[in-house]
Each structure stands twice: as structure tokens, then as C-alpha cells.
Design a protein that fits this description.
Elements lengths: L6 E2 L3 E4 L6 H9 L1 H6 L9 H13 L3 E8 L2 E10 L6 E9 L8 H16 L4 E7 L3 H10 L2 E12 L2 E11 H8 L16
Parallel strand pairs: 5-6
Antiparallel strand pairs: 1-2, 2-3, 3-4, 4-5, 6-8, 7-8
């Protein structure tokens, strides 16, 4: 697992996870509100297996996992994979906010901080994610960030007696800079002649 370091937003902080976070991870993955919104991180959600799964994730070379704090308490997690060095990008696989903390702005603040880190600090070229079509909060955050739909899987997920589409979304660095370059730069742009 890549060491993601600490990423600070206005109201949230993404930090390296610790073993004490696993009880909350387990609670979220067993929560039907989370299970309804998107796929869960590891199946089944069983406390006895979380420690081992945490170790397995740490062995994955291109994987990264952050815990999300707000007001000095754990409120979520973010997990994803870096692409290859020849294709500098990132796929966000999990982005979970504690259902008891929904509608407080923590999701957008953490997502904005994470993407600032990915595009500005790491200088990645593109990011991708997949969302269920009825995950309105996730789609709202993705739209606000600047993601665009590029593919749709029809009737991919079955639950509650019906099928739901899966939407694949993409954002490149140019789209990020166009929307957020004036307000969310971590560092000033490098001068064109700086590498000469």
C-alpha cells in the first residue's frame, strides 16, 4: 500500500489508517445505508477478518488507503489504486462517509482535498471512478468536482428487487485546472522555462 501521507481539507483530514479505525470500518461496511449506496470494501463484513484484510491491503503495491477525520474523530475512508508509471492516474475504489455524518459537507471537503493532492501535488494526469446510478450524493460530489460520464453499465447491480446501472466517470488534469486551478492550487504553477 502506498503511504498516502496526510492531506488537509478545510474541515477534514485524510490520514494513514491505524488499527483502531477497523471497528468503525466494520460498522460502516455492515450498515445497509452504505451497502445500498455502493459496493463495500471487502466481503463479508466480519470483525474477525478485518485485521487480516488490512494487512493484505498494505501489501498491494499500487493501493492506498486513507482514514478521514473531521473535528478529531473518524468519519470516513478513501481507498484507491495508482495506475502505472507510464500512465499516471488514480482510480478511486472506495469513498465512504459515516452515514451518521452525512449531509455535513465532509464528503465534498475530503474529495476536494484528495483531488487537489492527486492533481496538484502528485501531478497525475487523470482520475476515474465508478458509481451506482442511484448514489445521488456521490454523483453530486463527482459532478461538482468536474467528473464526466464516459461509460455506463446497464443493470449491473441487483438489490431491493431491481437492477441499477453503474456509471463510469473520468476527470483529467485540464478539467481539474479549469474548474479549480484558481482556488485550489497547493503550489504555484512551474514557470515554462524552469526546466531549461
Amino acid at each position: 500500500m502506498a503511504l498516502g501521507g496526510t492531506i488537509r481539507g478545510k474541515t477534514t483530514t485524510l490520514r494513514l489508517p491505524v488499527e483502531a479505525d477497523l471497528d468503525e470500518y466494520n460498522r460502516w461496511m455492515a450498515d445497509m445505508r452504505i451497502r445500498h449506496a455502493h459496493g463495500v470494501w471487502h466481503e463479508p463484513a466480519m470483525p474477525a477478518t478485518w485485521k487480516e484484510r488490512f494487512k493484505e491491503t498494505a501489501k498491494e503495491r499500487n493501493a492506498v488507503l486513507w482514514s478521514i477525520d473531521a473535528a478529531n474523530r473518524l468519519v470516513g475512508l478513501a481507498a484507491g489504486n495508482f495506475w502505472s508509471p507510464t500512465e499516471p492516474g488514480f482510480s478511486l475504489r472506495q469513498f465512504v462517509i459515516d452515514p451518521d455524518e452525512w449531509r455535513k459537507g465532509f464528503g465534498f471537503d475530503a474529495a476536494l482535498a484528495l483531488h487537489r493532492f492527486l492533481f496538484d501535488y502528485l501531478d497525475l494526469r487523470r482520475c476515474g471512478l465508478e458509481l451506482r446510478a442511484d448514489n445521488t450524493a456521490g454523483l453530486r460530489i463527482a459532478d461538482r468536482l468536474g467528473y464526466a460520464e464516459y461509460a455506463r453499465g446497464h443493470e449491473v447491480h441487483y438489490r431491493d428487487g431491481a437492477y441499477v446501472d453503474e456509471i463510469q466517470l473520468f476527470m483529467n488534469k485540464d478539467a481539474w485546472l479549469e474548474r479549480w486551478g484558481e482556488t485550489e492550487r497547493e503550489y504555484p504553477p512551474v514557470a515554462a522555462d524552469a526546466t531549461r
